[in-house]
Every structure is written in structure tokens, then in C-alpha cells.
Design brief:
Elements lengths: L1 E3 L18 H8 L6 E4 L7 E5 L4 E6 L5 H16 L4 E6 L3 H12 L3 E9 L2 H5 L10 E8 L9 E8 L2 E12 L2 E8 L8 H15 L3 E6 L4 H9 L3 E12 H7 L13
Helix pairs in contact: 2-3
């Protein structure tokens, strides 16, 4: 097993370029918004690679080779797990050959799989939307800032403020390959009033001005997130399979349904 860091991670970049989802997550690392590592079988001519992100979500790419299973298991359950305070691992892949390999590995640790809901942006649908008037007691603040810890590049953020307090926001959290993953939040007592949609429309307009396409993804149980995506004109795309492990899953509960609620999950 080889580890690539810093500029050396570019040696494995080509293995990730055919992903049809999560390009913003992947290329936010390759383009320097966040620091990441690559674990691979060769520094010279890699066949496969694992992109270790600073989030709880990691990406497997390339073509598996005979005997790689034990190395991949070591990467996830030794190298990566030891490097995170939260003992959780979420692995995505883009080739069906990896599904059975990851199934065998995660089954050994009482992991489980689920489908990440992926939505594609439709400019045509978005341009048909008519924004609602902003209430007099609501302030909409748009700014560029570092929206996640460890970010090295500022990205767009929109906050909905009432009585001097942020009650909802929409953040551009990972930007790469001219695409952006976004994260939304609304305080519980302010939910259902359209604030998340208002913040999202504002953020998307700023992204479009910068030539960046918004991306939307959520776990299946985040029904409200999916509802907002549809209100904004996003179009459902094929789900992305994720293999998931949590420390308490392995030690206490066996396989459980609840998914990791990481900061970058909407």
C-alpha cells in the first residue's frame, strides 16, 4: 500500500474523473479546498485508489486487483478510522466490481449499505421559480466564508436572520470541477416557513453567477431535504450506494438502520 499526500495526490486524479456523482466532493480535495490523502497500490501506475477526505465520506475508484481486499480493509478500518475522532466510515464507489468487495469487508465489521439520494440541477426548472417576497422582519445575508472546518477556500453562504439570530442557512460546502455540494439547516421552530428554500435560492443564484453548478444529495430518511430539492427544480438521478460503518454498530448493536448524521449530510 502506498500513501500520497500534498501535490502527489494528483498522480491518482485520473482514476476519479469518470464519477457521475460527488464530483464536487472529490475535486474539492484535488483543487485544494480541503487537504486529503490517497491510498493506492502504486505511486507510479495506480490501478485503484481510496480518496481519504476530512469528512466521514471516502471514495473508492479505479479497478480492483487480486488481493486488494485486505489492503482496502486496512485502509478503512486502521488508517482512516484511527484518523477521525468520530468512529464512522462511509465509502462510495463508481464501479460495480467494488460493491462485492466492500460488502465482504463491511460485513466483517457489522457495517451496512444504503442508497444516497442524488439530484441533478435543472437550470430550466430553476429559472421558472418565482421567489417569494422577503418578510419585513427577515434579513437575508449573503457572504463568502469558510463554511466547514479545515476549509482553505471561501465559499458562498446565505443566512436567514430574524431578531439578530440565524434561524436558517444554506452553505456551499465543497466546490470542485465547477460544481458545489450544498448544506441546509433550519432551527426547528422556524421550519415549514420557507426559509430553507429562500436561503437555497439565494445561494444557488450566487453559485450560478460564479459559473458553478449546484449539486444536491441526501440520505433517504431526510425527506424534507428531498422535498426542498424538488421545490428548487432538481431532478432525481440514480442513487449512489454507500457502505457504512459506525463503532457502536460493531460493538453494541449489530447492523442498525440509523445513518451517520455528519455535517456535510443533508
Amino acid at each position: 500500500m502506498e500513501k500520497l499526500e500534498g501535490d502527489d495526490i494528483q498522480k491518482a486524479r485520473h482514476l476519479f474523473e469518470d464519477f457521475e456523482f460527488y464530483q464536487a466532493v472529490i475535486f474539492s480535495i484535488f483543487e485544494g479546498q480541503y487537504a486529503g490523502k490517497i491510498y493506492t497500490d502504486s505511486k507510479v501506475k495506480p490501478n485503484w485508489a481510496i480518496l481519504h477526505t476530512p469528512f466521514l465520506q471516502h471514495i473508492v475508484a479505479g479497478n480492483p486487483v487480486t488481493g486488494c481486499e485486505s489492503i482496502v480493509e486496512e485502509v478503512f478500518f486502521t488508517n482512516i478510522v484511527k484518523g477521525h475522532n468520530e468512529k464512522e466510515v462511509v465509502a462510495f464507489f463508481n464501479k460495480p466490481e467494488w460493491n462485492e468487495i466492500l460488502r465482504q469487508i463491511f460485513d466483517k465489521h457489522n457495517g451496512f449499505s444504503d442508497a444516497r439520494k442524488i439530484f441533478g440541477f435543472s437550470l430550466e426548472n430553476f429559472e421558472k421559480l418565482v421567489p417569494k417576497p422577503i418578510p419585513k422582519d427577515v434579513q437575508v445575508v449573503e457572504e463568502k466564508c469558510k463554511t466547514l472546518p479545515n476549509a482553505m477556500i471561501d465559499t458562498w453562504s446565505t443566512k436567514i436572520i430574524i431578531d439578530g439570530k440565524t434561524v436558517s442557512y444554506c452553505n456551499s460546502i465543497m466546490v470542485g470541477n465547477k460544481k458545489s455540494e450544498i448544506d441546509i439547516w433550519t432551527e426547528e421552530k422556524f421550519q415549514g416557513k420557507g426559509y430553507a428554500t429562500m436561503a437555497s435560492m439565494s445561494l444557488i443564484n450566487n453559485l450560478l453567477k460564479d459559473g458553478i453548478t449546484p449539486c444536491w444529495a441526501s440520505w433517504p430518511y431526510r425527506i424534507e431535504s428531498q422535498h426542498i430539492a424538488q421545490k428548487l427544480g432538481f431532478i432525481p438521478e440514480p442513487d449512489a450506494t454507500a457502505w457504512i460503518w459506525m463503532e457502536e454498530t460493531e460493538e453494541k448493536y449489530g447492523k442498525k438502520i440509523a445513518l451517520p448524521d455528519s455535517p456535510n449530510s443533508i
